[in-house]
Specification:
By secondary structure, the protein is of the alpha/beta class. Helices cover 43% and strands 16% of the residues. It has a domain at 3-179 and 215-239: Rossmann fold. It has helices at residues 12-24, 64-71, 86-91, 94-113, 147-166, 188-197, 217-230, 247-257, 283-288, 296-309, 311-320, 322-335; strands at residues 3-7, 29-34, 54-58, 76-79, 118-124, 170-175, 178-179, 202-205, 211-213, 215-216, 236-239, 244-246, 265-268. The structure holds nicotinamide-adenine-dinucleotide and 2'deoxy-thymidine-5'-diphospho-alpha-D-glucose (DAU).
Length: 336
């Protein structure tokens, strides 16, 4: 395998993955296909602009002509492209279904047509729904609770159907909550870090006791690389950080690291359909030889400092999303 199509490569995890792969495999060539939605950002790849092994293509995974043309030049596809924010999916779900389900189907059809060696779908632990105790294995039925996770589950089922019906060489990974550099500042950690830097309140949903399993983005990239090269075709692999934290715990870590007061925490009405806890059993991928390497305490500190040092990166984005933040603020009030 020498050439890979990485869709959504200008987003948070996709851009970290492209950097990770080009460093690890000097002979690989990568084509990025990204629609540059509000979440996509060419700057996320700016350090790689002069790398001749990387080609950037601005286009949509729902565009068959573009997809066919690019897929005809590669050995493998990794699909990171998606609408990804749960809160946005509660207000507008059409684009989620369009990209996360139909876009996935169009990529699968191209993978089949051009006899791709491997098609890897980047999915999420959210497709299993919420779990009070224990952890979901890959065998657990899908029970998504938000329009976002429902659209991701739709994509996963399309992948399964393609493997079963056509023998398309598919793989699926389902990861837990990622954190790290270049994450769009609407997601919990970068949103709260950048608000705290500016002494703006941190809107904590509900009782703040919801639990997420935090995975450092480089550990996720290594897991995806591992499944790409060693995964069994047709199989699904969970990827988790083994770091369960409540939202209030994460919020306090951020405030303490930045030396900001707890009074910045603003309790707001809960997210509708808010999943209480996510947890995945990672035994299957561990048998393949992967496990997370980064210690949460070190990686989260490094991540917070990355946002402190890269203010110009996030300030431009936050300027552009002011209208959305105002909309959200009004929304918390309406929910009460
Ligand atoms: P992101 O929102 O930061 O990036 C998504 C990227 O996809 C953007 O660059 C965007 O421009 C691009 N995109 C969106 N629609 C497109 C389309 N129709 N055609 C081409 N490009 C399009 O997302 P992320 O957090 O980096 O997530 C990447 C993938 O990982 C997603 O599939 C997501 O479901 C999955 N995932 C994310 C997490 C997490 O914690 N962030 C955890 C598990 C799984
Ligand atoms: O579990 C993997 C998923 O993690 C990915 O598939 C999604 O793409 C990604 O967005 C993420 O979903 P979450 O809903 O868990 O992430 P988010 O950062 O939106 O929220 C994390 C937790 O923090 C959640 O319990 C809601 C809460 N929260 C979030 C925001 C943005 C708040 O309390 N206040 C906020 O302002």
């Amino acid at each position: 395998m020498h050439s890979i199509l990485v869709t959504g490569g200008a987003g948070f995890i996709g851009s970290n993955f492209v950097r990770f792969m080009l460093k690890k495999y000097p002979s690989y060539r990568i084509i990025v296909l990204d629609a540059l939605t509000y979440a996509g950002n060419r700057e996320n790849l700016s350090d790689l602009e002069k790398d001749s092994r990387l080609t950037f293509y601005h286009g949509n995974i729902c565009d068959r002509t573009v997809v066919d043309n690019l897929v005809s030049h590669v050995d493998a596809i990794i699909n990171f492209a998606a609408e990804t924010h749960v809160d946005r999916s509660i207000h507008e779900a059409d684009s989620f279904v369009q990209t996360d389900v139909l876009g996935t189907l169009i990529l699968l059809e191209a993978a089949r047509k051009y006899k791709i060696e491997r098609y890897l779908q980047i999915s999420t632990d959210e497709v299993y729904g919420s779990i009070e105790q224990g952890a979901f294995t890959e065998e657990h039925p899908l029970a998504p609770n938000s329009p976002y996770s429902a659209s991701k589950a739709g994509g996963d089922l399309m992948v399964r159907a393609h493997y079963k019906t056509f023998g398309t060489p598919t793989l699926v990974t389902r990861a837990s909550n990622n954190y790290g550099p270049f994450q769009y500042p609407e997601k919990l950690i970068p949103f709260f870090v950048t608000n705290a830097i500016d002494d703006i309140p941190l809107p904590l949903y509900g009782d703040g006791m919801n639990i997420r399993d935090w995975l450092y983005v480089d550990d996720h990239c290594e897991g995806v690389d591992h499944v790409l090269h060693h995964g069994v075709i047709g199989e699904t692999y969970n990827i988790g950080g083994g770091n369960e934290r409540t939202n209030i715990d994460i919020t306090q870590i951020i405030l303490k690291t930045l030396n900001k007061p707890d009074t910045l925490i603003k309790r707001v009405a809960d997210r509708p359909g808010h999943d209480r806890r996510y947890a995945v059993d990672t035994g299957k991928i561990e048998k393949l030889g992967w496990k997370p390497r980064f210690r949460f305490e070190d990686a989260v500190e490094e991540t917070i400092q990355w946002y402190v040092k890269n203010e110009s990166w996030w300030r431009k984005i936050k300027e552009k999303q002011k209208a959305y933040q105002e909309f959200l603020k009004k929304n918390y009030e309406d929910r009460k």
